[in-house]
Amino acid sequence: MRLTGVGGVFSAAHQPPEGGDVHGHSYEVIAWFEAGEDARVLQARLAAMLEPLDHRVLPIDMASGEAIAEHVGRGLDGCRQVDVRRPLERIYARWVAD
Fold first, then answer.
1. pLDDT in tens, 10-33
2. Which of 18, 44, 52, 81 is deepest in the core (most CB within 10 A)?
3. By the 8 A CB rule, do 13 and 3 touch?
């Protein structure tokens, strides 16, 4: 299978699920689709998905990279995989479609 990946970035704050202070991170998101659709169209769809998250406090159920990846993946038709990265901390999460 050949995949096309498109990326975006956003910054948001969250409350850790185990408690603690609200704090923020910068996230890099890469959404992967089966090759064939124009990458610019896919990137615009991803940007529209990330815009409501940017410079916000994430809901408690989206406090992890895994939850963000699943939210993005399930919200984008045809998405096969999503990678979420916090590059400064070297923390990564991945969601793969069923």
1. 999 998 878 889 999 999 999 999
2. 81
3. no
Tell me if 53 sits within 8 A of 32, measured CB to CB.
no
Q: Residue 41 is which amino acid?
A: V
Q: Which is it for strands 56-57 and 3-14: parallel, antiparallel or unpaired?
A: parallel
* Number of Cβ within a 10 Å radius of residue 87: 12
Beta partners for residue 7, in sequence order: 30
Q: Under a CB-based contact definition with an 8 Å cutoff, are residues 15 and 62 in contact?
A: no
* Alpha carbons 81 and 94: distance in angstroms, whole number: 7
Rounded Cα distance between 44 and 39, Å, is 9
pTM, entire model:
0.93
For β-strands 91-96 and 79-86, DSSP reports them as antiparallel
Length of the chain: 98
C-alpha closest to that of 37 among 70, 89, 76: 76
